[in-house]
Amino acid sequence: MKLHDYQETAAQFVTEQPNGRGCALWLDMGVGKTAITIEAMKRLEWDGLGRTLIIGPKRVAERVWPRELKKWKAPFSFEVFLDDDRRATEMLVGGKDVCIINRENVPWLCNEMRDRWPFDTVVIDEASSFKHSSSQRWKGLKKWHTGRTIELTGTPGDYLALWSQVYLIDRGERLGPSFSAYKLNFFDAILPKNANTSGKVYPTYVLKPGAKEEIDRRLRDICLSMSIDQGLPAETYNPIEVSLTTAQRRQYKELEEELFLALDAGDVSAVNAAVVSGKLRQFCNGALYLDNVSGPKDWAKVHEHKIDAVESLLEETGEPVLLAYQFQSDLERLRARFGDRMAHPDDKFALDRFEAGELELLATHPESIGHGVDGLQQNSRYIAWMGLPWSLEQYLQFNARLQRQGQTKPVFIHHIMVERSIEQRMLAALRRHGATMQGLLDAVKADLNKRWRK
Question: For residues 248 and 449, what is the distance between their CA atoms, to the nearest angstrom?
Fold first, then answer.
């Protein structure tokens, strides 16, 4: 598989760092940070890559990295070690080229390995989770890892949050040997007015005049960011696949084949193939409506995998996300998880608050916001589909809420789907019908260079 031009630029940036030095890629989710890094690792294999530790959010460590390593035919042996799979000895002497762990495991790993640290390169996926120098995960890496560090994130945070991330790359060469020295050199501490001097006072740190430009200059050789005018596509479609457990997969297959499923909360049945399609979509989203049950809760939860994926997406993007849900049970479970971090268009002033950047998440059914709403693109560029519609019009109109006049940044459209389910067939159908419609539009498109000439 071949990298896009902008991905090739990023891969070269990693591999051309001198003397085995690390670097940071500040690229949006969906641009292909994983593919870029794997390609760079392949090129560095004979130039001191050594054994590599990959650290990431649990879902990313468990699913994304193993899948991408296979997809890109990486010539490395690898193994995944999660919270409940702590095999320190195997990681140390097992001989795997690449070990993948979730970030919650970092303190344990550092404590187990100590001065036997076996890794020459560390890749930190979503490096913004290491922005606190007081955290145990940061302290562990600082103490025991002294080799190459490659950091990946789309949201490095504000200037105050940069020091700890950059330190893991250059050991204080650019921003100073300590966080306190960094703050002293580049920030003014502003005390709140009328502060109660009898208690503890927490100042606000504001960049000194010229400090921003100086920090930017110091980081330019080890940090790479890209914007739309540097070759990124106007919109990027990103699949986020979630896995069912063995028991859940068995339930899904039973409903698909038998048109019936018995749950503790009640029975679920489908009278024909058309109805079972809806039931399978409900199952994929995590809740099934029950037979002959009415009331405030006529559905039963079967899993939270997609809700978990939404939470990971919010963390990884660090920006407002416009979410399309399909069923009322989706909305109720989203509200239970995200509370006042989320709003619905029916909530008073929700659209205004989302446009102003005051909300992390705006959850809406595509039918309710497909037309007649403008302004969302002013402060958002992320769409997430928690389940798909069969309607191509709904799909395209919802995506057009952000991909429209006035949008100045690349738009990322994330499809949260259960692997090996009806949802892959739905997405393929939407793309097929979309391609057919686009062909028709292209056939009658006005050639502005030829038509209407006087």
Answer: 57
What band does 454 get if pLDDT is binned at 50, 70 and 90? very low
- The CATH classification number of 5-193+201-230 equals 3.40.50.10810
Nearest to 7 by CA among 21, 22, 30: 30
Superfamily of domain 235-241+303-442: P-loop containing nucleotide triphosphate hydrolases (3.40.50.300)
pLDDT value at residue 373: 60
Structure confidence at residue 1 (pLDDT): 65
Which of these ranges, 123-127, 181-185, 351-355, 425-429, has the smallest mean pLDDT? 351-355
77 neighbors 97 (Cβ within 8 angstroms): yes
Three-class secondary structure of residue 384 per DSSP: strand
| Predicted model pTM | 0.73
Please give the Cα distance from 424 to 416 (Å, whole number): 10
Cα separations (Å) of 224 from 126, 153, 217, 234? Answer: 15, 11, 12, 19
Domain 5-193+201-230 and domain 235-241+303-442 have a common topology: yes
- The pLDDT of residue 448 is 41
